[in-house]
Amino acid sequence: MKSIVYSLALIGMVACSSGGDTASDAASASNASSESGLSSFQMEHGIGPVTQPIDYGTLDQAMADRGKAIFDSKCMSCHKFGDRYVGPDLAEVTETRSGAYIMNMILNPAEMLQKHPEARAKLAEFMTPMPFQNVSEDEARDILEYLRSQNNNP
Predict the structure, then answer these.
(1) Residue of 45, 42, 51, 57 lying closest to 153 (CA atoms)
(2) Averaged over 57-72, what is the pLDDT?
(3) In order of start, what are the domains of the chain with their CATH numbers?
(4) What angle in degrees, to the nearest 10, is found between the helix axes of 117-126 and 2-16?
(5) Mean pLDDT of the region 68-94
(6) Quick one: pLDDT at residue 81?
(7) Dist. CA 150–CA 75, nearest whole Å
(8) What is the mean pLDDT of residues 42-57?
(9) Distance from C-alpha of 129 to C-alpha of 123, rounded to nearest angstrom
């Protein structure tokens, strides 16, 4: 019962939030950081084993190919490019999230969904928690490289 009330409260908070005003957006981000107890790095890059920003460099096609194979077997049942599905549309994910955030979401979804305001908002929107898919950090980096190859962030 508590989880239903919690979910409804999250939906209400997301539905009632306003957008557009950068000053209030900055204040909201600051408040979210202080309310959540997360550092500014964690607010931008997520919570998990990736504790440094990812330096993309030139697209590595071999990594992207490995990442596609992993994505096809572990991610595509919930995620699509250009379509809302069980999980968020990934068409522009590397444009809107840092590489470290994406990897931390892949590697540490349970804690991200519990503690990170953006991940919690997505959970409230999609109502389906992302499960851990038993991938290593190297595999998560390969998936990230595949996402880069599909997005406009090579």
Answers:
(1) 57
(2) 97
(3) 2-150 (1.10.760.10)
(4) 100
(5) 94
(6) 93
(7) 14
(8) 96
(9) 6
Amino acid letter at 105? M
* Amino acid found at 76: M
CA dist 30 → 24, 27, 47, 109 (Å):
10, 5, 17, 23
What count of Cα atoms within 13 Å lies in the side-chain half-sphere of residue 34?
5
Write out the two tokens for 49: 């084993």
- Assess whether pLDDT exceeds 70 at residue 131: yes
pLDDT band at residue 24 under the 50/70/90 scheme: very low
